[in-house]
Amino acid sequence: MDEEQFSAFFAAQFPDVWRFARRRTESGSDADDIAAETFAVAWRRRDDIPAQDARLWLFGVARNVLANHTRQDRRRDRLHLRLVSTDPPPSAYEQNAPSQEALWPALAALDTHDRELLLLRAWDGLGIGEIAALLGIDRATVSSRLHRARLKLDRLLQTRLGRAPAAGDASTTGDASARGDASATDERRRYA
């Protein structure tokens, strides 16, 4: 297959491969990456593309590319969690309060999406609208997910600090000040 034939093949098959990837990824940009990598493999292996079932062959390549990306993401997430849970950042000039010491393992225990929302808000200082634009979702969805992530983090922190929240406890509603716990209130403000 020469360059001109491959260009025609690409133009004819790209939309289907992109849609195939999009149904299996979180965003359009992820689908772009998968489709681009699929066609890069197809270009390198253009002599192996079967005359019959070329589309099916491309879907097989796309599945392999997706599997590779998933494995890379999992390895990266595991490494990140291992780093965060075993080596919290050192305090340069002050001793960490117990609630801060419990924060890193609690963040590591959250699922990837909840942790990402909290970090975008707290560390990157993004507003709800900015997070919504970045993730390509509605502001109300971001607000709702962020609220749930904060509640989960609070429950994990309370458990790690030996203060298991009871049903109806202020920690399940996210109101640390109702407990009179100044350190938890400060911690929540810091990560809100």
Structure description:
InterPro entries: RNA_pol_sigma-70-like, RNA_pol_sigma-70_dom, RNA_pol_sigma70_r2, RNA_pol_sigma70_r4_t2, RNA_pol_sigma_r2, RNA_pol_sigma_r3/r4-like, WH-like_DNA-bd_sf. Keywords: DNA-binding, Sigma factor, Transcription, Transcription regulation. This protein is mostly helical. It has two domains: 3-80, Orthogonal Bundle (Rna Polymerase Sigma Factor, Chain: A), CATH 1.10.1740; 97-190, Arc Repressor Mutant, subunit A (Orthogonal Bundle). Helix content is 71%, strand content 0%. The protein has nine helices and no strands. Helix 1 crosses helix 3, helix 2 crosses helix 3 (54-86) and helix 6 (128-135) crosses helix 7. The radius of gyration is 23 Å and the shape is elongated. The N and C termini lie far apart (56 Å). 18% of the residues are buried. Mean pLDDT is 78; it is low at 168-192.
Helical region count? Answer: 9
Classify the fold: give the CATH topology of the largest domain: Arc Repressor Mutant, subunit A
Biggest sheet overview = none
How many beta-strand segments? 0
Provide a concise account of the structure shown:
The chain contains nine helices and no strands. The chain has helices at 3-22, 28-44, 54-86, 98-109, 112-122, 128-135, 139-160, 170-173, 182-190. It is elongated.
List its traits.
Rna Polymerase Sigma Factor, Chain: A, disordered C terminus, RNA_pol_sigma_r2, single chain, 9 helices, elongated, RNA polymerase sigma-70 factor (ECF subfamily), 192 residues, DNA-binding, mainly alpha, Arc Repressor Mutant, subunit A
